[in-house]
Predict the structure.
Amino acid sequence: MVTVAYLGPPGTFTDAALHRFRADARIADLLADARAVPAGSPDEALALVRAGDVDYACVPFENSVDGTVNPTSDALAVGDRLQIFAETQIDVVFSILVRPSTTAEDVTVLRTHPVAAAQVRRWVGENLPNARIETTSSTAAGAEEVAAGSADATAAPARAGEINGLVPLAENIADVGGARTRFVLVGRPAPPTPRTGHDRTCVIFGLPHQPNSLVQALTELSIRDIDLTRIGSRPTRVERFTYLFHVDLVGHIDDPMVAEALVALRHRTESLRYLGSWPVADLAEAGSPPPDRADETAWLEGLRRGEGAG
């Protein structure tokens, strides 16, 4: 049986993302009869994959309001290489969940995940006058703590309330409307998910301390007309003030221009980690695909055969 670690307990946004992955026909063969295994954090879920205790991990990767989920990116950058096979997106709206009969004035401690806390802080300040926000390991864990009486309220998905016998004090709460979180399905290295023509590739690389080293690396992408959808830097945690660059680019390793760029990046960088190529979840955010260059390739092959005009 296939096993998938996720940020538990049941009722988290990651739990909802895992349900969406299971319904994705493009990866149905990966998750047939999958059993969910709760983990305490994204890096713990990824550690279970590395140890061989589970086959995959479903982890948050990027939030449209707060940006990259750094614990996930940091965990993917070190240790044995892991690979991303799919992504999905979840709308981020919260219910303020309480025990029955609790009023807004009764709420003195609201406990939730740090990312959730950042996205409801303004609403809480305006509507829960006596509340202090505290953080916990997940939104669902916050719901469990409310049910146990150690907190008065939580900001969590509505399903967490249903699971724990809580009721909504308010629904559809988010300081920034339209927020989404992108989740990825991660496993041990294997052939990438097949190319669809609407794909994303992720790499992490380190650079020498030399003038223009970042410019030279990015130029390998630019001169091949490869679109970027995300770029960021994170400390290596090995040597002070040294960084790794995390880049999402449009295209698949089976696209000739992307393959060529990856080879060039390997030459330009001190280290290069390939995190996979997979279909995008939302075609509206797919970016500009890499050029085909089929005409140029055919022209070159003709010259090699002694054909074609100069």
Notes: The first helix runs from residue 13 to 22. The chain has nine helices and 15 strands.
